[in-house]
Amino acid sequence: MQRFLIVTSMIFLQLFNGGNMKKVVILLFLLVSLQMFGQVEQSSETYNNLGLPTFYYELLNYKDQNSSLTRVDVFVQVPFNSLQFIKDGSGFKAEYTVSVSVYSKEKESLLTEKLWNEKISSQEFDQTHSRSNFNLSLKSFSLQPGEYVFVISVEDKDSRKKSSYDAKFAVKQFENPVDVSDILFIGNKMAVNGKEKIFPNISKIVSTSEGKLSVYAEVYADSNTLVLMKYFISSKDKKTIVEKTSEKDLQKGINHIALETDSLVLPLDNYIFTLTIDDMNSSKKVSSSKTFFSRIEGVPPTITNVDKAIAQLIYLASTAELDSIKEAKNSAERLERFLNFWKTKDPNKATPENEAFNEYYRRVEYANVHFSHYTEGWKSDMGMVYIILGAPNSVDRHPFEYDSKPYEIWEYYQINRQFIFVDSTGFGDYRLTTPFYNDLDHYR
Question: Among 203, 209, 242, 428, which residue has the fewest nearby CB atoms (within 10 Å)?
Answer without folding.
Answer: 209
